[in-house]
Amino acid sequence: MSGLTQGAATRPAPIGGYRHKAAFGAFVAAALSIAVPRGALAQDSQELAKAAQNPIADMVSLPFQNNTYFGVGPNRRTADVLNIQPVVPVSLGDWKIINRLIAPLIYLPDLTNGLDVLPQGVARGPEFGLGDINYTAFFTPPQRGHLIFGIGPSITAPTATSDRLGAQKWSAGPSAVVVFTPGHWVLGTLVRQLWSFAGSNARQDVNQTLVQPFVNYNLADGWSITSAPIITANWQSVAGSRWLVPIGGGIGKLIKLDGQPIQLGLQAYDNIERPTGAPQWSLRFSISLLFPK
Question: Distance (Å, rounded) from C-alpha 54 to C-alpha 182?
Fold first, then answer.
């Protein structure tokens, strides 16, 4: 699913007002160096590209989405998260259950800014590890024309390998998505709300809304123009420091390597509204392995 994190959905939720970093440069450079001759894609390439951009398409896929965050914290450092996001549809009569998992690999830079005495919960030095894993199940009816929707539960487990990399809370709530696919377009919005219900009493409760509108326009030869900003609201924060609102977009390209369809994407987003310490802007690179029926 080009550009969609869900989860999702996703940019990770703020942890102490900070963002995350991971080493991914060599992988990005290698992927961007792939060249595919014109005409290499089959005639149905546009439909396959549209399926890759649809978060509830009836297709197995394995997206890798890397989000690099710039201008994090008082020293404006760089942070990064690699989201591994397998998607597996399951038939339930005429309906489908679209199972989506997001497992983030997070790198946090040192954000202590040379302080001798650190605030509670803040540690020195960079850190890398697994973050909290999110699972969502979308129940989708048979598609009618160009419109399809899905609703279902979403749950986040406290799987982080460090208390700096996760909320240390079990969280759950509803999620919904609507998709419209006329002509060259794939349009829609994904919404998710999470509340914590168990976990460490020493950590702040989770009450977070995520909204991700997405707009894709498919061009010739597998190219596409896309925008899929991830807007979040942390309702536990004080007023004026709740919202992260990015704007931007980028391009996508559907290629085939030895017959294997792969969707590539590169997008940039400027955070026009952000909490203190949040990144100023971000760069998103994605590679999705597609397994059509």
Answer: 12
**Predicted pLDDT of residue 179:** 97
20 found inside a domain: no
Q: For residue 168, give the amino acid letter.
A: Q
The mean predicted confidence, pLDDT, of the chain is 85
CB-CB contact of 264 with 41 (8 Å):
no
Any idea what the CATH number is for the domain that residue 238 is in? Answer: 2.40.160.40
Give the residue numbers spanning the domain of 239. Answer: 25-110+123-291
| Domain total in the chain | 1
pTM of the model: 0.83
Tokens at residue 276, please? 């203190």
- The reply to whether 83 falls in a domain is yes
Task: Look at phi and psi of residue 111 and say left if phi exceeds 0, alpha if psi is from -120 to 50, else beta.
Answer: alpha
Reduced to 3 states (helix: H, G, I; strand: E, B; else coil), residue 48 is helix
Radius of gyration of the chain (CA): 19
Element housing 153 (H / E): strand 147-157
Per the domain annotation, does 117 fall within a domain?
Answer: no
Query: How far is the C-alpha of 144 from the C-alpha of 161, rounded, in Å?
Result: 43
Confidence of residue 124 (pLDDT cuts 50, 70, 90): low
pLDDT tens profile 238-263? 888 899 999 999 999 999 999 999 99
Alpha-carbon gap, residue 237 to 220, rounded angstroms: 45
Determine, yes or no, domain membership for 15: no
Q: Residues with Cβ < 8 Å from 280, sequence gap 6 or more?
A: 70, 71, 76, 270, 271, 274
Which residues in 27-116 belong to E strands, given as ranges? 60-72, 77-84, 87-92, 95-108
